[in-house]
Amino acid sequence: MHGADPRLVLGLHRSRHHHDILTAALDLGVTALDTAAAYLGFRSHAVLAETAADLLPKFTLSTKVGFFPNAGGAEHSLDPVRLRLAIERAARELGREPDTVLLHNPERSLTSLSPADGHALLGSACTALVDAAREGLCRTWGVSSWDTRPLGMVGVDDLPSPDVLMVRAGFLVGIDLLDTTAVLRNVWQAGETWGMSPFGGGHRKVWEEFDPRPFLRPPHRGLSRTQAAFRTAFHLPGASKMAVGTDDPVHLAELLQALGAEVDTFAVSQYLRALHSHRQS
Length: 281
What we know:
By secondary structure, the protein is α/β, with parallel strands linked by helices. It is built from twelve helices and ten strands. Helix 1 packs parallel to helix 11 and helix 4 runs parallel beside helix 6. The longest helix is centred in the middle third of the chain and has 20 residues.
């Protein structure tokens, strides 16, 4: 196994959960997995335990709770009792306690509520995760949000501070969302920021039309556009880890290589200023 690099997290959102990609990840030095109760048709935890029970102890594992199966597919809930049961079920299905449990897209249950009601509901959900961590059902807890704007609207300054705030990252994230995330994590005093979906869900044509390599310092501009987009995503917004889904070991190895590149932070700052100017014009 190569030297482990904790900055790259293998996300399982679109993964087939095969043993071979997990083995390849470990061989490359990727020792972090991110999944969710709802992934793979609500079978992710059980399938991981069935197909990779020998490998799971070698990974740090984060999972998410907040979506629940129903007759029509899935429903979202921040009910603290349901969340607690989901965390307990995750540990049973995985055969181990996850290292981190994240509240999965809480904005889905907040958008239809008043700020006061949303604040109370989010607070009770966060407390459920705090209690789970305190009681040993996970080591740390956090929030994974696809759209942080509803969280900012309900207010979080007096809610429990998450150990992890997981958010969208990269060039395809709009300036409104980047700004909201920056304010949210400061007000909430989140411990770590993790990025996700740095390629915007697989919009490959974007990288054919847009070259992000000028955002890398020489001599790293010889990397591919995809590699440059991935590396720069750690600064849009600032993140200590990045979750990326793939079933291709070659792609995983390319992303690991990109971690050695240095980002031109001045170019990133100019890019953000340009986005702000365009919004105001």
